[in-house]
UniProtKB/TrEMBL annotation:
Source species taxonomy: Bacteria, Pseudomonadati, Pseudomonadota, Gammaproteobacteria, Alteromonadales
Keyword Zinc assigned: no
Gene3D superfamilies listed in its UniProt record: 3.40.630.30, ATP-grasp fold, A domain, ATP-grasp fold, B domain, NAD(P)-binding Rossmann-like Domain, Succinyl-CoA synthetase domains
SMART domains found in the cross-reference section: CoA_binding
The N-acetyltransferase domain, residue ranges: 740-896
Signal peptide as annotated in the record: none
Keyword Nucleotide-binding set for record: yes
Keyword vocabulary terms for this entry: ATP-binding, Ligase, Nucleotide-binding
InterPro entries noted in UniProt: Acyl-CoA_Synth/Transferase, Acyl_CoA_acyltransferase, ATP_grasp_subdomain_1, CoA-bd, GNAT_dom, NAD(P)-bd_dom_sf, Succ_CoA_lig_flav_dom, Succinyl-CoA_synth-like
Protein name in UniProt: Protein lysine acetyltransferase
Length: 901
């Protein structure tokens, strides 16, 4: 992931077009035309042996004849010539190329190597990067660079658009130009075989010219890099994504389109949500979202006021708002009185505010002014339906002037919907020029508003402090993994309840008492041991669902019933499938289900994102996309709670209000325990808990099936999101003999870490923050504690105080650039623990971590006054230099060199 190369892609000073042409409708001709018309100020160098000049620009017969090394090369030739061209360009010193040819993966050389593989090898050998193949190109309006095959240029703006589909690119571009919406960058990824979403998200997330990012995705290949980059970028700016393949047929078509892996759409949805991105379902939603992002500010709250000149559109907007989970505020007495004095007696008297079908520009403007004065409203939607008065334009002008002059214009977002076509077109155009969001329908306007709300909620969720799980999770997974590996050694691919109980119990999960036997008489003995009533089940690897062969009998109450049921069950299975292998009978004590509710929890192994946790109603058949909500591990209590809320909100889980039934806290504990189990045990491929009996705080797993991976699994990359690295926990001893725990920081540490930061002396704070700094807010501390272990690290030192509570004594953190080149650290230790060797322990641990992580350089800066920090760094092998002008001490360690010493 080379961000340095991407700087060349986004800021080229010269461009070469390989395959430039004078023939109309050829790719090389369209490229030249677009480049010359875009206003790019750098050299544009056509390369072709066929012409002395292309469109009046001197051409060069081959790459070697170019007068200078191009920053960017655009390859417009047929697929067969691409590998050789890329090798020549790379040897010549070009670092980035856009490849427009398609079909490279389908054509092979004489030795059987595909053209795509050969192209990639030739590029990687010289450190060259490729956008594409099958790319439409890219447009950078701020540079006047139109290096694309698009039929029109893009206007300058502050939205970045990245798409795997060229057709979607041109569609969005056409619409945006009509609306007067511009872009900071417009990029067609094509097949994304090299430069991919993750690198572009890292770049665009830091790009000062980009305020929002839009993605069109067919498939994701680098799951961890993608989610890590998306999570980082979404903290700073909204990311909207439209994902094809919501249906099974659509998924197959998407795979044919880009050749990527196909994954479950519900898992994609969960991944987007976890990364803080907003998903839109179609182009109409996408256009509405672009309109909102281009012309609005971040919401200060979620309360929407509605002004309309008709009841019908107001009701449509209200329905969309309430059904979407939005908030409709009541009008305060003051606002009501002011509106009552302005409007006809027939006005609605409430929010939505129906100002009457005869409302003119004056009434609209005054009503909007009054609503913008309200402290109870965060956004206002102004609706207008065609009127016989014909003041559509005048009203729009009055609305725009009112917004521009109102003192609350930066606090309250105003959205507009001018319904109709001919009568509304000019008004919508006026709003677009005035940078006021405008929509064709009331529903579209409210939908766009709810995208803003959802983004705000996602950001607040990322700042929530999770509750620590209130159970003891095993210090390591040795016991569970031994059991699983024993099962694999015995050739088993599925473990049923009786084989799984000890594994699940070790993680605090409660199962029902279960026995396994091959003999009907022994089943009777086990039933007596369990105590009646019992359930009897047959186990056979050839039976997918026991209920299909009546392989489950419940509420057996006597020895005779058990023996008869066992014999009848075996006979029935054999009569249905004579070749079925019957491994034995399972005897279970019946759980007391009165007043309890049955649900289903599962873990599926998605081909794109790996393990995913599913939650829904009980039943033998379910389709995750339709019947369950999905979340990616690792889960904590906050994320588990969000998952349950999503399940209830979408009716994937129904609270049946039984006497015992669902308990939020207990459900979250169970889901978090399952997350720990899946993280610790890579042998587990699938997990099906069906049913799970919820009886208030008592949750019991009645029937369990664990599916095992039959092939070795790369545990390092198995999970889409890096889990808490428990292996980095360390007990250390200070000079005074006290023991401390050195470990990575957790989101749950936020309150104690805030207390630690507030405990620093004024002098320590001055040294830590390079000046006077106010105390941290919750939101700021949430960012520091909810870190992505894939791209940053923070170690804290903790000890148990006299009150039995854990206290943070010191902390060190470092963030790393996406290229894993350089990490920059900062450290702080409580005043009363300084001089005990704690700083040395923390810095040594950080150095070791980044050496093991293959990072190249570790740096830090401190003030002249902090000579102790400089001395410690020098003692540990840092090169220490003094910047007299900035009055800073620079600490630098070449980790590669020190690792080899």
């Amino acid at each position: 992931m080379s961000q340095r190369t991407l700087h060349t892609l986004f800021k080229p000073k010269s461009v070469a077009i390989i395959g430039a042409s004078n023939k109309p409708k050829r790719a090389g001709n369209v490229l030249m035309k677009n480049l010359l018309s875009g206003g790019f100020s750098g050299p544009i160098m056509p390369v072709t042996p066929k012409y002395e000049a292309v469109m009046g620009v001197l051409a060069y017969p081959n790459i070697e004849a170019l007068p200078l090394k191009p920053d960017l090369a655009i390859v417009c030739t047929a697929a067969a010539s691409v590998p050789a061209i890329i090798e020549t360009l790379a040897q010549f010193g070009c670092k980035v190329a856009i490849v427009m040819a398609s079909g490279l993966a389908d054509e092979v050389t004489e030795d059987g190597t595909s053209l795509l593989t050969q192209t990639q090898e030739n590029a990687h050998r010289y450190g060259m990067r490729i956008l594409g193949p099958n790319s439409l190109g890219m447009i950078l309006p701020n540079l006047g660079l139109n290096a694309s095959l698009a039929h029109t240029a893009a206007l300058p703006g502050r939205i970045a658009f990245v798409s795997q589909s060229a057709a979607i690119c041109t569609t969005v571009l056409d619409w945006a130009n009509n609306k007067g919406i511009g872009f900071s960058s417009f990029i067609s990824l094509g097949d994304a075989n090299d430069i991919n979403f993750d690198e572009l998200l890292d770049y665009l997330g830091r790009d000062s010219k980009t305020d929002a990012i839009l993605l069109y995705i067919d498939s994701v290949n680098e799951k961890r890099h993608f989610l890590s980059a998306a999570r980082a970028a979404s903290r700073n700016k909204p990311i909207l994504v439209i994902k094809s393949g919501r249906s099974i047929e659509g998924t197959s078509a998407a795979k044919l389109h880009t050749g990527g892996l196909t994954g479950n759409d519900a898992v994609y949805e969960a991944a987007f949500r976890r990364a803080g991105m907003l998903r839109v379902n179609d182009l109409i939603e996408l256009f509405a979202a672009v309109e909102t992002l281009a012309h609005s500010r971040p919401l200060q709250g979620e309360r929407l006021g509605i002004i309309s000149n008709g009841g019908g559109p107001a009701v449509l907007a209200l329905d969309e708002l309430i059904l979407g989970g939005g908030k409709l505020p009541l009008l305060s007495a003051e606002i009501y009185q002011r509106l009552n004095a302005l409007l006809p007696k027939s006005w609605s008297g409430q929010n939505p505010v129906d100002i009457g079908g005869d409302a003119n520009s004056v009434r609209y403007a005054k009503a909007l002014e009054i609503m913008m004065d309200s402290e109870d409203i965060d956004a206002i939607l102004v609706l207008h339906s065609p009127s016989a008065l014909g003041e559509s334009i005048e009203i729009a002008e009055a609305i725009a002037k009112t917004i521009a002059s109102h003192p609350n214009r930066n606090r309250i977002n105003v959205l507009t919907n001018w319904s109709g076509e001919d009568s509304a077109y000019e008004a919508r155009k006026l709003f677009s020029k005035s940078r006021i969001p405008t929509y064709r329908t009331p529903e579209g306007a409210v939908g766009a508003f709810m995208h803003m709300v959802e983004y705000r909620r996602n950001q607040k969720l990322l700042q929530e402090v999770p509750q620590s799980i209130p159970v003891n999770i095993p210090a390591d997974a040795t016991f569970a993994r031994e059991k699983l590996q024993q099962a694999l050694a015995q050739g088993k691919t599925i473990l049923e309840t009786h084989e799984s109980r000890n594994i699940l119990n070790a993680y605090g999960l409660k199962t029902i008492d279960t026995w396994f036997t091959n003999d009907a008489k022994q089943a009777v003995a086990f039933a007596n041991q369990a105590g009646y009533p019992v359930a009897l089940k047959v186990q056979s690897p050839d039976i997918h669902h026991k209920s299909d062969v009546h392989g489950v009998v419940l509420n057996l109450t006597s020895d005779l019933e058990v023996e008869q049921a066992a014999k009848a069950m075996i006979e029935r299975v054999m009569s249905i499938n004579p070749d079925a292998r019957i491994e034995g009978l399972i005897v279970q004590k019946m759980a007391l289900t009165a007043g309890a509710q049955e649900i289903r929890v599962a873990v599926a192994n998605d081909p794109v994102f790996g393990p995913a946790i599913l939650l829904g109603e009980g039943g033998s058949e379910w389709e995750p996309t339709k019947d369950a909500v999905v979340a990616l591990p690792p889960l904590n209590m906050t994320l588990a709670r969000y998952m349950v809320i999503q399940a209830l909100k979408t009716q994937k889980l129904r609270d049946r209000h039984l006497p015992l039934g669902l308990n939020m806290h207990a459900l979250c504990v169970m889901l978090t325990q399952i997350s720990h189990l899946i993280i610790d045990c890579p042998e587990i491929a699938t997990l099906d808990l069906n049913p799970v009996l919820c009886a208030g705080e008592d949750i019991t797993l009645l029937d369990v099936n664990i599916g095992l991976h039959t092939e070795p699994v790369d545990n390092a990359s198995r999970l889409a999101i890096s889990p808490y690295p428990k292996e980095l926990e360390q007990i250390a001893t200070l000079k005074n003999g006290n023991q401390v725990m050195l470990r990575p920081i957790l989101p749950e540490d936020e309150p104690k870490h805030l207390a630690f930061d507030n405990s620093l002396s004024d002098e320590d704070r001055y040294k830590r923050y390079f000046g006077v700094r106010s105390k941290m807010t919750h939101e700021e501390m949430a960012v520091l504690t909810q870190i992505d272990y894939a791209r940053e690290m923070a170690f804290i030192a903790t000890a148990i105080g006299e009150d039995g509570e854990e206290t943070t004594l010191g902390a060190i953190r470092a963030s790393i650039d996406p290229d894993n080149t350089e990490a920059e650290f900062a450290m702080a230790v409580r005043s009363n623990y300084q001089g005990q060797g704690l700083g040395k322990l923390l810095l040594e641990k950080l150095v070791k971590y980044y050496k093991d992580n293959d990072t190249q350089v570790l740096t830090g800066f401190t003030m002249f006054e902090n000579r102790n920090m400089a001395s410690l760094a020098k003692h540990l092998g840092f090169t220490v230099t003094f910047d007299m002008e900035e009055r800073l001490i620079n600490m630098h360690m070449d980790l590669k060199a020190s690792a080899s010493e």
